[in-house]
Design a protein that fits this description.
mainly alpha; transport; 4 helices; ATP_synth_F0_gsu_mt; about 0% strand; flat
Amino acid sequence: MVSMASMLTQLQTKLAQASQYMAKHGGARYKQLLEQNKQYIQEPPTIEKCQMLANELFYTRLASIPGRYESFWKEVDYIKYLFKNRQEMKLENAGIGVLFGLECLTWFYVGEIVGRGFTLTGYHV
């Protein structure tokens, strides 16, 4: 079993390597990233401009809620229709629905495990 001290030493080594890499290549990578994405940069790049864009994003998303709400209820109505007429449903569509449900359930369980710190029982060893 690996001791905590050796794990801490390994972590410190990895952090030192990452820090050295960023010190050596970080500036060039930063400039390259900005150059590749310059079409997304708003001028002037100030705090006020960033705040204005954050407000635009927030209120645009807020304004999109009624449309998303309507789309949600259309989907619910379609599911109700499918259940009402399930005799006409093809096996392929039912299989896709079951697989989608299993995928959602799996992501829920994975999220729960991650939320508990990657433990299956909830207790840390």
